[in-house]
Automatic annotation (TrEMBL):
Lineage: Bacteria, Bacillati, Actinomycetota, Actinomycetes, Micromonosporales
Full protein name: ABC transporter permease
Record family assignment: Belongs to the binding-protein-dependent transport system permease family.
UniProt xrefs under Gene3D superfamilies: MetI-like
Principal localisation: membrane
GO cellular component: a single term: plasma membrane
């Protein structure tokens, strides 16, 4: 287990390095000029060159990359040349909205998917199972932004139970929870419908395995065989899907934060792209990329710990 963990850790480090090179290179190749965006179209060539010198964008590519990656390794994301604020502090501030939103959405997804997915598998040949499968298909088909607009119309405009958008900050815990409730519900329903399909398929497949039939032949009831043997084995493929969904939620928050006007990481990223604040874009994209790679690393480790077949082959 230790050798496998170290090997995966090395792969994670190499992947992070490759991702940093890719992110920096692609953003450096984007058309446009930060100095031009700052000074406008009427700026003189002398003023533009002076500002490029101040921003450091006229330096060689390798020098700029080494300076950027060195700062990241020290925890310094640099200072935005356009807004003059620390990129790291901005990212940390926005994560205070995005991370709770993702955790709440994933919690709701699990609360939806696990019991309903198991029930749909157990009742797979009954009207209840068919109805649950149809419900999950409908949840997958509904676009997240449309569901968000629908919730705003019903609960904010008509019933006036929840705020339509915005975020007051965690100083007002009640207001913050209310602001995140509908966005988390949108993420939870969308991801819960997908995860429910995988839970159902995994449980149905495991319940047909020979060791389940042997357990039934030894006197265990269907529910006892499910609890003692099937759920643990069905959890193995679900863990992989769960990790992928966490990564998907990171990207999904970009849309949801803009629908509900939440000042999170995704909304900041879109604003920075429009403002040509490439240093903040680089830092934000690198944080999102590192989060996805870290999630995949943790999924591999947990998968290896849960599945004894992988441990025996390591």
């Amino acid at each position: 287990m230790l050798i496998y963990f170290v090997r995966r850790l090395v792969i994670l480090a190499v992947s992070l390095f490759a991702a940093s090179v890719l992110v920096f290179t692609l953003l450096s190749l984007l058309p446009g000029d930060q100095a031009q965006a700052r000074l406008g179209v009427n700026a003189t060539p002398e003023a533009l060159e002076a500002l490029r010198e101040q921003f450091g964008t006229n330096r060689p590519f390798t020098e700029r990359y080494l300076d950027w990656i060195g700062g990241l390794l020290r925890g310094d994301f640099g200072t935005s040349p356009l807004s003059g604020v620390s990129v790291g502090s901005e990212i940390v501030d926005k994560l205070g909205v995005t991370v709770p939103l993702i955790l709440a959405g994933m919690t709701l997804a699990l609360l939806i998917a696990l019991p309903l997915g198991v029930l749909a598998a157990v009742k797979s040949r009954t009207p209840i199972g068919t109805a649950l499968s149809a419900l999950s298909q409908a949840g997958i088909a509904v676009p997240s932004f449309w569901l968000g607009i629908l919730l705003i119309t019903v609960f904010a405009v008509k019933l006036q139970m929840l705020p339509a958008g915005g975020f007051t900050g965690w100083e007002d815990v009640g207001g913050a929870v209310q602001a995140l409730l509908m966005p988390a519900l949108v993420l939870g329903v969308a991801q819960g419908a997908i995860l429910m399909r995988y839970v159902r398929s995994a449980v149905v497949e495991v319940m047909q395995e020979d060791f389940i039939q042997t357990a039934r032949a030894k006197g265990l009831s269907r529910s006892q065989a499910l609890k003692r043997h099937a759920l643990r084995n069905a959890a193995i493929p679900v863990i992989t899907v769960l990790g992928l969904q966490l990564a998907t939620l990171l990207i999904g928050t970009v849309v949801i934060e803009n629908v509900f006007g939440l000042p999170g990481l995704g909304r900041m990223l879109l604003q920075d792209v429009g403002n040509r604040d490439l240093l903040k874009v680089q830092g934000t994209v690198m944080v999102l990329t590192a989060a996805v790679l870290l999630i995949n690393f943790l999924v591999d480790v947990v998968y290896h710990a849960v599945d004894p077949r992988l441990r025996s082959n390591a």
